[in-house]
Design goal:
The protein is of the alpha/beta class. It folds into three domains: about 70 residues, no CATH class; about 170 residues; about 120 residues, no CATH class. It is built from 13 helices and 20 strands. The chain has a 15-stranded parallel sheet with strand order 1-2-3-5-7-8-10-12-14-15-16-17-18-19-20. The chain has a three-stranded parallel sheet with strand order 9-11-13. The chain has a two-stranded parallel sheet with strand order 4-6. α5 links the parallel β1 and β2.
């Protein structure tokens, strides 16, 4: 037999074997005890273990106590086509019920369950029964994904997860909870979840108070992801979560305040496309990485982050609406090395000055990489620029550590050309600058089958290329490489 990684096989003489396993070995003629067969089967996918169960009683018993249970239509070998979905779903649910009914309920470590609506009292009872079988002490990971059917939506509370199942001892061992499309209503008597390190809630009905009960009982939590939770108005993260290092919050539609007192968060992602939320991060000395998207984010990031996150090293910003150009301020990002800025086209005012983004560069003495993605609509006064005399002699800081610059969506906008020239004139350490006139939507190699250029690409590309030739190429330092990405022949043949 080939060795299996992580499996230590000892001879019968070297290990103590329970009488029942010795009897089973004598009956089957196999020299390997049944507990080792169980361990071997735990490495196999669910479908393979089910097939093996037809071979012998040993494999059948292994199947009935398999520790990793993953249920999806693909895993169960059922079609996902729309025709006949009602019957397929009924068959799927019946198979899950039979498997769990025959499962011993002992030793389940991972349960990954996808469930398909409709949701009513009968299906809720089925889910409750299945979860009761699987959620026993020793469970380590639970992923519950509930898909709506027809007019039922994820915004509607379709199924209420029985949180009391986590109070029977299983909550002490569980390390990861992942919920999508259900309600989760823990109360103050939830009980300790001392092993929980990862919590992900997406389209989950839970209030800020209920989330607080959960967090206060999860002192080992390291990762917290909250997405589209439609009832959370405030998020309060207590100081006792000393292990929390990664926090992600996105599109919680009624959220107004995020207040974090967790002392060791190192990565923070915040994504809200149409709402301002108050961020109270305190003195987040350990934050090294932030990804943030919300209205007026350029102004807020430049104003707030240098003082609240003084040790920031990676900053990713997506701006979808700015009332004014980015302010010039004396505050610094003293440790920032990697900066990514994306500006979305239709939400920006015509008067926005892209050159004002130099405020971030001037504030970042250690910056090594700068990526700018410009997705803005050009205005008439930009497309007819003839006089760029202001490009000469603009005073500015020296960017002694900046080595790589990429501008995606480079166009003949005066302020963008000025910004590019300013960087070239003040960056003696530059190694490479890439100017992508395609907006990142066209192919850049033979391996790409299809091209999806924007219509504006073919209008602006000749002007952008002329600007590069006239104003930029001559300013590239001798030791730096200039890469220009333009539409390929295949792109130019696409009917847009």
């Amino acid at each position: 037999m080939m060795p299996i990684p992580g499996v230590l096989v000892q001879s019968l003489a070297e290990r103590k074997v329970s009488p029942c396993y010795q009897d089973d070995a004598s009956q089957t003629g196999s020299p390997i005890p049944e507990d080792i067969w169980h361990h071997i089967c735990s490495f196999l996918p669910l479908k393979d273990v089910a097939r093996a169960a037809r071979v012998s009683h040993v494999f059948l018993r292994s199947w009935r106590c398999h520790p990793n249970l993953t249920f999806s239509k693909t895993i169960m070998g059922l079609s996902t086509e729309s025709r006949g979905q009602g019957k397929i779903t009924r068959d799927y649910n019946k198979k899950i019920g039979n498997i769990l009914k025959n499962h011993s309920g002992i030793g389940v470590k991972i349960l990954n369950l996808e469930f398909y609506g409709p949701y009513n009292l009968k299906t809720s009872h089925c889910l409750d029964t299945w979860l009761q079988i699987a959620l026993t002490p020793g469970i380590e990971e639970l992923t519950l994904t509930l898909y709506p059917k027809r007019k039922q939506t994820l915004d509607k509370e379709n199924y209420n997860f029985p949180w009391s199942l986590l109070s029977n001892g299983s909550g002490n061992s569980i390390r990861a909870l992942n919920f999508l499309g259900c309600a989760f209503r823990p109360t103050v008597d939830l009980g300790c979840m001392r092993s929980l390190t990862s919590l992900s809630l997406c389209f989950v009905h839970i209030t800020g108070d209920e989330l607080g009960f959960l967090l206060s009982n999860s002192i080992s939590l390291e990762i917290l992801n909250l997405s589209c939770c439609v009832e959370i108005i405030f998020i309060k993260i207590p100081c006792m979560l000393k292990h929390l290092s990664h926090l992600t919050v996105s599109d919680c539609y009624v959220l107004q305040v995020i207040e974090s007192k967790a002392p060791n968060i190192s990565s923070f992602t915040f994504d809200f496309k149409d709402r301002n939320v108050d961020l109270l991060l305190g003195e987040s000395l350990q934050v090294k990485e932030i990804e943030i998207c919300h209205p007026c984010v350029l102004r807020d990031a430049r104003t707030m982050l240098p003082s609240s996150t003084p040790n920031l090293q990676t900053l990713t910003i997506c701006s979808i609406d700015e009332e004014s150009s980015t302010p010039m301020l004396p505050s610094k990002f003293l440790h920032l090395k990697y900066l990514v800025i994306t500006v979305i086209e239709c939400a920006f005012p015509a008067h926005y000055d892209l050159f004002s983004l130099v405020s971030f560069l001037d504030a970042s003495p250690c910056l090594e990489t700068f990526d700018l993605d410009v997705r803005m609509i050009l205005h008439e006064h930009d497309m007819n620029v003839e006089d760029l005399s202001q490009l000469e002699g603009i005073p500015g800081h020296r960017y002694g550590n900046l080595r790589r610059v990429r501008i995606t969506g480079f166009c003949f906008r005066k302020s963008l050309v000025m910004l590019t020239c300013h960087i070239l004139e003040n960056t003696p350490s530059l190694e490479c600058i890439t100017l992508d006139t395609c907006g990142g939507t066209a192919c850049s190699g033979d391996e790409v089958v299809s091209c999806y250029p924007r219509k504006a690409t073919f209008v602006e590309d000749p002007k952008a290329l002329k600007a590069i030739q006239t104003y930029i190429k001559g300013k590239v330092p001798s030791m730096a490489k200039l890469n220009v990405v333009e539409p390929c022949n295949r792109c130019r043949g696409v009917d847009v």
